[in-house]
């Protein structure tokens, strides 16, 4: 199907609450949540990495759960509440996880960071990770090509309240 034909195809109505704002949209059934966010909604913090659900760069929260937005058709989410990196905090009022990522230098190039942070927020909400090993295992769907995994785990542990030995020593000094 060419682009001209795509514009004449029927669209579906969908109501989504994105970062606290209700959006009543008409979209084609094949539009992924990722493409909806980055395209017409201009929420470009969510990144398109592999576009196959293998890297986690596009992770957002859907009804509080971690989701690879490249794998979800937006029309299947009617009535859902979606939180992107833009909805977690602002530079002047950052979410605790965003602050921890900054404090622990848990990013390098930054491309994976929005997905890492959304995934980490979802991970803590799940409440299943009790150790550093569990954090690393449960974050394994989010790839950092720069290798900032140690710092990412440190940031998550801090927000979890455990803190790594190094960060606890720094806090004590």
Automatic annotation (TrEMBL):
Protein name, entry field: 2Fe-2S ferredoxin-type domain-containing protein
Keywords, alphabetical: 2Fe-2S, Iron, Iron-sulfur, Metal-binding, Oxidoreductase
Entry GO MF terms: 2 iron, 2 sulfur cluster binding; metal ion binding; oxidoreductase activity, acting on the aldehyde or oxo group of donors
2Fe-2S ferredoxin-type domain span: 12-88
InterPro entries: 2Fe-2S-bd, 2Fe-2S-bd_dom_sf, 2Fe-2S_ferredoxin-like_sf, 2Fe-2S_ferredoxin-type, 2Fe2S_fd_BS, Aldehyde_Oxdr_Iron-Sulfur, Beta-grasp_dom_sf
Organism of origin: Pseudorhizobium pelagicum
Gene3D superfamilies from the UniProt entry: 3.10.20.30, [2Fe-2S]-binding domain
Iron listed as a keyword: yes
């Amino acid at each position: 199907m060419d682009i001209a034909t795509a514009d004449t195809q029927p669209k579906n109505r969908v109501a989504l609450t994105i970062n606290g704002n209700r959006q009543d949209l008409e979209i084609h059934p094949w539009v992924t949540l990722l493409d909806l966010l980055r395209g017409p909604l201009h929420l470009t913090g969510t990144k398109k990495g592999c576009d196959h659900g293998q890297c986690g760069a596009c992770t957002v929260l859907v009804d509080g759960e971690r989701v690879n937005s490249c794998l979800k058709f937006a029309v299947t989410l009617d009535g859902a509440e979606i939180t992107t990196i833009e909805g977690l905090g602002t530079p002047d009022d950052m979410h605790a996880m965003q602050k921890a990522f900054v404090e622990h230098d848990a990013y390098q190039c930054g491309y994976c960071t929005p997905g890492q942070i959304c995934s980490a927020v979802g991970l803590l909400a799940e409440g299943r990770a009790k150790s550093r090993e569990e954090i690393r295992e449960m974050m394994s769907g989010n790839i950092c090509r720069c290798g900032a995994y140690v710092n990412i785990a440190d940031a998550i542990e801090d927000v979890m309240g455990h803190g790594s030995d190094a960060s606890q020593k720094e806090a004590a000094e």
